[in-house]
Amino acid sequence: MSGDAHAVLVADDDSEVVTRIQSWLADDYVVETATDGDEALSLLESVDAVLVGRNLHTSSGTAVAMEVERHAALSMAVLRSTGPGTDSCTSTPDSLAKPVAKEPLLETVDRLVRRTRYDELMAECASLAVKCGALETQVNVDCYAGDDEEYVTLQQRLANLLVELDDLIHTFDGNDFRAAFATCDFIGNAQSQHAERLS
Questions:
Q1: Mind listing the pLDDT tens digit for each residue in 158-195?
Q2: Could you give the C-alpha distances from 106 to 76, 160, 177, in angstroms and in order?
Q3: Structure pTM?
Q4: Distance CA 159, CA 169 (A)
Q5: What single DSSP character describes residue 99?
Q6: In the chain, which ranges are continuous DSSP H helix?
Q7: CA 179, 169, 114 angle in degrees (round to 5)?
C-alpha cells in the first residue's frame, strides 16, 4: 500500500449515506462501497479501513461491524444512528453519528489510515529484524558493518522505518494506542495482510 492511495470501504444499508461519503473521499482514497452485508464482507481483503453502518447485517443476520472487528489489521469506524437503543455494537472507539458531517468524517478516515500505516510499519520492521538476525548468525556482525550490501541496505531501511514510526506515533492519542494494542497478535495479522498484498 505504501506509495499508493489507501482503500476505504464504505458500507451501510442506506445508499444515500454511502453515495455522499464516497463523494467526499473519492479525491484522496480508493473507495469501495456496499449496501449489502455479504458484499461488504467480500471486500474486506482489498481495503485498508472500513466505515460500516451499525445496522448492516449479512443474509444470515450477522452484524457486519462485528465481523470487521475480527480483522485485527483493519481500522474501522461505525456509522450509527442517533436516538434510543443505538449504542455501539462493537468495542471500537471510533463511531460517527448519522447524518455524518464532512469534516468529522475526513478526520476519522485520516485517523484510521494512520493506524493502518502504523500496523504496516510494525510488520515491516519485524520482518527486517528477522532478516538482519539471520544474516548476523551466518557471520560475525562486524563483518557486515561496511562490507555486506544486503545487510547495510536492510539496516538503512529499518532505520528509516523507525523514524517514520516515531513521527507517526506523535500523531496518536489514547484511542489510537488502544486500537493498536487491542490484540497482542496485531503485528502478525498486519504482517500477513501486508504480505498478501505484495504477492
A1: 888 888 888 888 787 766 666 666 544 444 444 444 44
A2: 13, 28, 20
A3: 0.70
A4: 15
A5: S
A6: 15-25, 37-42, 64-69, 102-138, 149-169, 174-180, 186-198
A7: 60
